[in-house]
Write a structure and sequence with these properties.
About 40% of the residues lie in helices and about 20% in strands. By secondary structure, it is α/β, with parallel strands linked by helices. Among the domains are: about 100 residues, OB fold (Dihydrolipoamide Acetyltransferase, E2P) (Beta Barrel), CATH 2.40.50; about 150 residues, Rossmann fold (3-Layer(aba) Sandwich); about 45 residues, no CATH class. The strands form three sheets. A five-stranded mixed beta barrel has the order 1-2-3-5-4. Strands 7-6-8-9-10 form a five-stranded parallel beta sheet, with helices on both faces. A three-stranded antiparallel beta sheet has the order 11-12-13, with no helix packed on it. Helix 4 runs parallel beside helix 8 and helix 5 runs parallel beside helix 6. The mean pLDDT is about 85.
């Protein structure tokens, strides 16, 4: 029968553990025994505060377990954690003495059922599409004749070699700037995003920016599905081409870029024109210009020949003679008209002169009539009643005048009364 360690004479027995001592022993046993364990369950009570750490409860039908994903681990996840998600995670148990509780510190997470990469790709695509990053109206056209091209890729990979080879074959005189970056594995996405941001700070400004690599598996290409890469491409001020060398799998970088190329070689074909094609276009344009100019010259020649055949240009002296003849005719007609006008005016003047002569008082006097006036007042005397005996009067004749004094006034009958 076990003894009671708390008996009166054994109150300080070494077998008695404090809470801290017992918790420490449990912590050592648990953390050593479960230093790496895989656990499956459903996420609930998920939260991610500003610290970036992820806290959740992992549960099944009969039990539940607290769990945490630290910020550095959460940043490497290829999909978003959320309530209701079935996951399989690997981690170690950690005992937290202040609360006497334990939790699973997760180091790796995979969704159950759907593959991790496929689920991550689908969820991130839905999220970014809802923000409008893949909208067609955001797409920008590529410049027709770029002079400076940037390429974010591995400087030792086949992608840049293929790109430059096709570029040199199609169009010369283009400057290519390589922004070195890993294109697969942990940390590749951050380097690609940094390369894109660096390319946007280069001066003089680049005309086009290519982001890509050669072919590979979905896992190899996964960095081009990372959110940091997609957002860096979306924020680029330079028109971008996604040239991830995999024709079957479409990455999120393909969706957000202005132009998608199936391979780096095709990116070179999309970014610069073919010198042969441009030469052919120039030859065709030259031929069309020559033909149009020839047609125009022919039209002008026909117009000149038509103008030259007109009498005014073929026999200009005829026009001068005709005009001279018309001037002579106009002068003759003008002289005739002026003479006629003068005759009419002379006739009118003669008639007017005759009328004036008939009204001239002097002409009346020449016919034997005279005018009598009072010598003092010069008043014309037309009646004997205006004259008094002894009055001095002046009688005007056609030639000269007679001054006389009235001796007698005789009133004769008026002609109106006869």
């Amino acid at each position: 029968m076990p003894t009671n360690p708390l008996s009166a004479d054994n109150s300080t027995d070494a077998g008695v553990l404090s809470v801290s001592q017992l918790t420490a022993q449990l912590k050592g046993v648990v953390e050593t025994r479960f230093s790496s364990v895989w656990v499956a369950g459903e996420l609930s009570n998920f939260s991610r505060p500003q610290s970036g750490h992820c806290y959740f409860t992992l549960k099944d039908d009969a039990a539940q377990l607290r769990g945490v994903v630290w910020k550095n681990t959460a940043a490497r996840l290829k999909f978003e954690l959320a309530d209701g998600l079935e996951i399989v995670c690997r981690g170690h148990l950690d005992v937290y003495p202040p609360r006497g509780s334990y939790q699973l510190v997760v180091e790796e997470v995979q969704p159950r059922g759907v593959g991790a990469l496929e689920l991550a790709l689908r969820k991130l695509r839905e999220k970014l599409a809802a923000e409008g990053l893949f909208d067609a109206d955001r797409k920008r056209p590529l410049p027709a004749f770029p002079r400076r091209i940037g390429f974010v890729t591995s400087p030792t990979g086949a992608a840049i070699r293929d790109f430059v080879e096709v570029l040199d074959r199609r169009w010369r005189g283009v400057e290519v700037l390589i922004f070195p970056s890993r294109v697969q594995g942990d940390g590749a996405a951050a380097e690609i995003a940094a390369g894109i941001r660096l390319a946007n700070r280069v001066t003089p400004v680049l005309d086009v920016l290519v982001v890509g690599r050669g072919g590979g598996s979905l896992e190899d290409l996964w960095c081009f599905n990372e959110e940091v890469v997609v957002r860096a491409i979306a924020a680029s001020r330079i028109p971008t081409i996604s040239a991830v060398g995999h024709e079957i799998d479409v990455t999120l970088a393909d969706h957000v870029a202005d132009v998608r190329a199936l391979t780096p070689s095709e990116a070179a074909e999309r970014v610069v024109p073919s010198a042969q094609d441009v030469s052919q276009i120039l030859r065709n344009m030259s031929t069309r210009i020559e033909r149009a100019f020839s047609n125009q010259v022919s039209t002008w020649r026909q117009r000149l020949e038509s103008l030259a055949s007109r009498p005014a240009l073929s026999r200009p002296e005829d026009a001068v003679r005709n005009l001279s003849r018309q001037v002579d005719e106009f002068a003759t007609r003008l002289q005739i008209a002026m003479k006629s006008v003068l005759r009419d005016q002379e006739s009118r003047l003669a008639n007017a002169g005759g009328k004036l002569d008939s009204l001239n008082p002097l002409a009346v006097l020449e016919r034997g009539y005279s005018l009598t006036q009072d010598r003092a007042t010069k008043r014309l005397i037309t009646s004997a009643k205006q004259i008094k005996k002894g009055q001095s009067i002046v009688t005007r004749l056609a030639e000269g005048a007679v001054i006389s004094t009235v001796e007698e006034v005789s009133t004769l009958p008026s002609a109106k009364t006869k």
